[in-house]
Amino acid sequence: MKCLAAFVLLVLAAVVSAEQVSYRNYKVYATQTTSREQQSQLKRWEDLEGVDFWDRAGKRVMVHPRLQQKFELFLKAHNISNQLIIQDVDATIEAERKYDREYRQSRIGSGRHTISFDHFWTLDEIYAYLDELAVDYPSLVTVEIVGQTHEGRDIKAITISTSNGQVSGTKPVIFIDGGIHAREWAAIMSVVYLIHELAEHSDQYADMLINEWVIVPAANPDGYEFSRTSNRMWRKNRFPPTILCTGVDLNRNWNYQWASSSNACSDTFPGSAAHSERETQALVGLMNRYSANLKLYLAVHTYGNLILYPFGYAWPSVPVSNAADHIAMGAKAAAAVSAVGGPSYTVGNSADVLYTASGASDDYAAGAAGFTYSFTLELTGGGNQGFDLPASQIAAVAGQTFEIFRSMANDI
Ligand code: 0X9
Ligand code: ZN
């Protein structure tokens, strides 16, 4: 009997893990709050299962079909104006999957398809590309495994430096991570594009290569793969803090103003302790190694067209001591995006522009790791589709983001 039960459980687990989580009839509402009161009322929905604040500023909220009526009544009762922007989230996700399937199918047998920015790469494809660069450009690129995830995947870092791909200790280090949040695929692709440009067209970027670049393009490998194969809207890593809920928000896990939480099911669960997670430990280890030269930290996220500077753990906000320099640098970078016809980015303190969040990587970089400059970039999203940036727009967003990287690198 016990054997049978175990078998049934195993089969169930296999079925559940193989199947994509369905977002059929989940709706997304764009909301506009005009007072702090409305804002805090809306925030009360945040930790409820079936409600997902897509851009975290609370503007776009995805709601489970079972809660929609109640949610709409709530919006009405509190006079929160809103628009229904997605009728069925699953349709958007399915369109994305279909594109990917057809893209890959059409290229079977026609050699490599990796080095193009018209589709989202798998983790294996990203890693294979990094390894290839290390072989092709040994005097510029090194790749190393800086940690392993809970599910046993490698966390890989690439160093791009004219000192034989090493951090020499004599030049400023720019440290970049992408994909701390699993579903923010366009962030990962934008960082991969930066790597591609710097490594394969280094002759064009002598200005940028005055610095040394340490880059972790996929900082949450388990989460990224999970969002590709099982749940497109997954945000956290895949460590299970309890038997009921899986995942730690890697952007709440850092040891600067870290704040505990007892709700392991929340999408922003910060972990059992600061730096509890292997992915955070890997990044911190890497930062510590180069602590004497850390100049600029960039956490690349989506979405919102924002360039955010520290600190974001409290409101009223506590500005980093060189806030004016951050603002000037951010404004130049925003202008560089506009100059290539990109969208208008807002520059500001993260708690002022967005919301407060404790234990985030940008705060740690400025407050503890010793970086001179630290930003979180919220790149362009897919319009009403939020995280699902259409693959056809990856190249444009990555190109615009490159202008941010270039402008900041030239500024430090
Ligand atoms: O909430 C986050 O972690 C970031 N936004 S996201 O939509 N990508 O999840 C913003 C973090 C900003 N930094 C701080 N508040 N310190
Ligand atoms: Zn994010």
Defining key terms:
alpha/beta, binds N~2~-sulfamoyl-L-arginine, Aminopeptidase, four-stranded antiparallel sheet, binds zinc ion, 12 strands, eight-stranded mixed sheet, 412 residues
Secondary-structure element sequence? Answer: HEHEEHEHHEEEHEHHEEHEHHEH
List how many beta strands DSSP finds.
12
**Mean pLDDT score:** 93
Individual helix count: 12
Name the hetero compounds present.
Answer: N~2~-sulfamoyl-L-arginine, zinc ion
Share of residues in helices = 25-40%
Which runs of at least 5 residues are low in confidence (pLDDT < 50)?
A: 7-17
CATH architecture verdict of the largest domain = 3-Layer(aba) Sandwich
Report how far the terminal alpha carbons are from each other: 67 Å
CATH topology of the largest domain: Aminopeptidase
